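Exercise (ungraded).
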Amino acid sequence: MKRLAILGSTGSIGTQTLDVVRNLPEEFSVEVLAANSNVELFSRQIKEFRPKLAVLADEAAYKKLSEEKFSGTELAGGRQAFIDAAAFGDSEIVLTGMSGFAGLEPTIKAINCGKNIALANKETLVVAGELITKLAENRGVKILPVDSEHGAFFQCLQGEDRRSIKKLLLTASGGPFRGKKFDYLRNVTVKDVLAHPTWNMGKKITVDSATLVNKGLEIIEAKFLYGVEYNQIQVVVHPQSIVHSMIEFCDGSIIAQLAAPDMRLPIQYALTYPQRLPSPIKPLDFWELKSLTFEKPDAETFMGLKFAYEAGKWGGTLPCAFNAANEVAVNAFLRGRIKFLDIYGVIDDVMRRRPVKQNPTLEDLIAEDLEARRLAEEFIKEEI
Amino acid sequence: MKRLAILGSTGSIGTQTLDVVRNLPEEFSVEVLAANSNVELFSRQIKEFRPKLAVLADEAAYKKLSEEKFSGTELAGGRQAFIDAAAFGDSEIVLTGMSGFAGLEPTIKAINCGKNIALANKETLVVAGELITKLAENRGVKILPVDSEHGAFFQCLQGEDRRSIKKLLLTASGGPFRGKKFDYLRNVTVKDVLAHPTWNMGKKITVDSATLVNKGLEIIEAKFLYGVEYNQIQVVVHPQSIVHSMIEFCDGSIIAQLAAPDMRLPIQYALTYPQRLPSPIKPLDFWELKSLTFEKPDAETFMGLKFAYEAGKWGGTLPCAFNAANEVAVNAFLRGRIKFLDIYGVIDDVMRRRPVKQNPTLEDLIAEDLEARRLAEEFIKEEI
């Protein structure tokens, strides 16, 4: 039985992770649940999974939760308690299902305690790829990718030598606006953006999918997970989201991973690895599937890819600035403060203005994150 | 440097194998070349690859070859010399590139001498699957598949546990007559049949592709190579021949192997396994590839699949009878003695008439092969 800590348990990844646990009750025990502020759902999760520790990062939400009694579960609240939850007790795998830069500190804490990471929080690797991969290597900790694309790479690499990788073929659905141009994108609404064609996800990542910033973040994530160069990562638009990614090897052979678009599969694989166990995922029926299509991404219109390659190639603190600017811009878009295409404007402005510091420490990154956010806010207030 | 014996060196697989060797001169030495009767090509191969032993199975061809001088190469001729070539000297891998039942004895001989088999002669496993797999297991010998489909399964299984296999998805181009019905097939010519849309292969296998008997043989081959049940093997028509086969695992995940249709890739992988090395295969370009399509095979019209499942499920000597009847029928078709659809008639008649003997010995199989051929000839002479 593997002992799990699930951070971000009330989010999209968190609830699907608990569904995986529910389907394989003999395999897992939930030691820790941690979330932000959804008291009602969190309370139900505690009752069902009976963790030893349950933490809400939001103080007010924690106060409300404390009014209930949960026998056998220690409660805690606040940002520091959330970070400490990553290190709690004897959990073996910490699943990082929270979104954004906030995932960095708990992830580092868990690695420092020698816990394997089931990584759903891609921003961690984007912002601090070098730092995290070095730390994980030093502590002998496994980074198990939960993203469907990186989970696909991970599966395709089993039994292979990483030095044989020629190219990572990172597939992208293309998002809800595939084929559209600036004149259309200028006036799209939040509602348009949140109608993703193939994946049902959290709001932030759904916006990132529409801008292709999500694919950009995944490029940087892939670079650090698999130690390749940026020119070895090629994005391929594949609207059906059946092929979750592919690896081309030096002999010209390509290994691909396919499945119905259901996040429970990469989550389960990360948690049961190196085993595979039965799952409730609907099998693909190739007699009915008809056609899988592939095309070149429109990188002129969807500038998320361009920013990511640029941030990644400069390295140092620039991916952190890229990510921070994007987080602020997406938030502003979701609140109706800026338009869809302004997201690119914010990122572009912040990336131009931030000097790049190489080999950043955690403190450098926290400072960079703050400063990039400040600049992004300033740009939104003054220019838009 | 791996030492190779290449049986069937002048055929389609043999010449492509020598091309692989030519591209990786540091990796391989050719210890043995053996072919049937193509003196001119064989003579050139001996001069280029300087094997220790060179054998022609055809006595007359051998006599003609003996008129030339080859320094450092011992020459031999005749059927027995061909079989013995499989056991010669210190070759580590014997590539079985000959076609048909004739591959069985040399393969058994090589396994008995503890040599790994790069298996291109699928009839060997079809006819004697149980016998061969047991023998290989007892002798600690690897069977490395050279067929593009079984090579794909082999690649997809690296790093995986065979017990996690749920289904083998065996892809088929569908052959030159995909979508056609009996009224069309009744009058197709040898020339129509030999115009295969995606693969350039030997004549016998090209006819087998058109009848789907080839795919049927591959079903039986897959059953023995990967120890699955017949109901775990699903044929999927995929006209582009880019996905060379796929494996569905118990968690619903599918691993697929893709490449340009070029036999040198599975040949090279079998020979360099477990390594991958650079190859001259044209890489796939997913930005240009557009679409991969999949459909259900028309098993009512193309009865090769039905015969194979039936032969496989009965087991014992029946796959041997199936294969013998097919070899005779294909030969008769290529010589213009029977029509295309008569191939099914011959197979059907022979399979109906042969009693099934379980757990056959090599002698049983040789006898079964002879008797099934006799019946097939009889049917062709008397009924067609």
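Further reading is listed at the end of the chapter. For now, observe: Chain B has a mean pLDDT of 96. The longest strand of chain B covers residues 28-35.
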